[in-house]
Amino acid sequence: MKALILQAPKEAISCQETPQPIPTQGQVLVKIKAAAINHRDVYITQGLYPGVVTPIILGSDGTGEIVGLGEGVDSSWLKESVVLNPSIGWETATNVQPKTYEILGMPKNGCFAEYIAVDLKQVHKTPKHLSSEQAAALPLAGLTAYRALFSRAQLQKNERVLISGVGGGVALLACQLAIAAGADVYVTSGSEEKINQAIALGAKGGVNYKEENWHKALLKKANGGFDVIVDSAGGDGFKYFLDLANMGGRIVFYGGTRGSFKVNPQKVFWKQLSLLGSTMGNTKEFGQMLDFVDETQLIPVVDSTWTLEEGAAAFDHMDQGKQFGKIVFKIN
User: Fold this and answer.
1) Residue 284, SS3 per DSSP
2) Same structural domain, 272 and 210
3) How many folded domains does the chain comprise?
4) N or C: less crowded end of the chain, CB within 10 Å?
């Protein structure tokens, strides 16, 4: 079968022939129809992710059709259209992931291939209103955004929400999920075009964080502060979220691409703020996320589609950060 393989960190990913996996006890063989890139995949290729194992087939997001069954799997699953849960080993709904927790696509082989063998508990039926490419855009980003918004921040209808850095996979899905939940959503971005695209999806407005005093402009534009703020960057700009948050506000973050940050403790305790870290999600939350997408008929945004042979170019496109939505491999 064809697969995108990373031979070593800092080497270009390449499309190669590799043996097709065989499903073992309790596993299914999935013929992948579409798979999406996450920043995690890019960081792994750059050697910026802990515990990199190579050679490896990357890819946490995938959807396809079950074409083979391991021993003990009911035959009714054959030919089922499925989306893969990238969160491995977090089946119970505990507050934190276990020490044995893994993410699909490293250290185990992932979805950038024509076939993958996974445990039956990792597959869920694909929402029927989604194409393969749209469904592939959903798993990792959708799960991360869902947990951040609903499990951690406890978002309620009609609350005011700020999503920073809209355009990236998780931030954009957080924007879509919050809008679908009936929240008033505002965004930030370094691109006016991405702000306008978010508004076209239903956001109320946004500001460019590259502008001086952007946080003051946002307070004026939104006519007040925010009940929930979702961030992935951290860095020096994080301190402004304390000013933007309403009394009792919840600030949830799932990344730190801009580095560490300092906060004013007086603002945190006086405003009764909650600072909430969040990572991925458990199996129950993945199912809840899919149910929410099905009920609201939410459609993830696909930025562009590529072939496996175009893998290196697709990774470059991701690294440039110009995308709005997910970069997806369409696999025939």
Assistant:
1) helix
2) yes
3) 2
4) C
Same domain, yes or no: 128 and 149:
no
Find tokens 């945004």 and name the residue: 301
Q: Which tokens belong to 70?
A: 């391991």
pLDDT in tens, the chain (332 residues): 999 999 999 999 999 999 999 999 999 999 999 999 999 999 999 999 999 999 999 999 999 999 999 999 999 999 999 999 999 999 987 899 999 999 999 999 999 999 999 999 999 999 999 999 999 999 999 999 999 999 999 999 999 999 999 988 999 999 999 999 999 999 999 999 999 999 999 999 999 999 999 999 999 999 999 999 999 989 899 999 999 999 999 999 999 888 898 999 999 999 999 999 999 999 999 999 999 999 999 999 999 999 999 999 999 999 998 899 999 999 98
Show the domain range for 79. Answer: 2-138+300-330
User: Residue 256 is encoded by which pair of tokens?
Assistant: 């730190």
User: 246 burial class (0-12, 13-18, 19+ CB within 10 angstroms)?
Assistant: middle
Asked whether residue 51 is assigned to any structural domain, the reply reads yes
| Residue 196 included in any domain | yes
Name the residue type at position 72. G
Specify the residue for token string 């079950």: 66
Query: Collapsing DSSP states into helix, strand and coil, what is residue 323?
Result: coil
| Strand residues in the chain grouped as ranges (E) | 2-6, 14-17, 27-36, 56-57, 61-69, 81-84, 87-88, 102-103, 115-119, 123-125, 160-163, 184-189, 205-208, 226-231, 245-253, 274-277, 302-306, 326-330
Rounded Cα distance, 213 and 97, in Å: 38
Q: Alpha-carbon distance 264 to 187, whole Å? A: 23
Q: Of how many residues is the chain composed?
A: 332
Q: What is the DSSP letter of 64?
A: E
Burial class (CB in 10 A: 0-12, 13-18, 19+), 197: buried
Residue with tokens 């801009």, as numbered in its chain: 258
**Is the domain of 250 the same as that of 271?**
yes
Query: Sign (positive/negative) of CA torsion 127, 178, 85, 169?
Result: positive
CATH number at residue 118: 3.90.180.10
Query: Are 91 and 117 members of one domain?
Result: yes
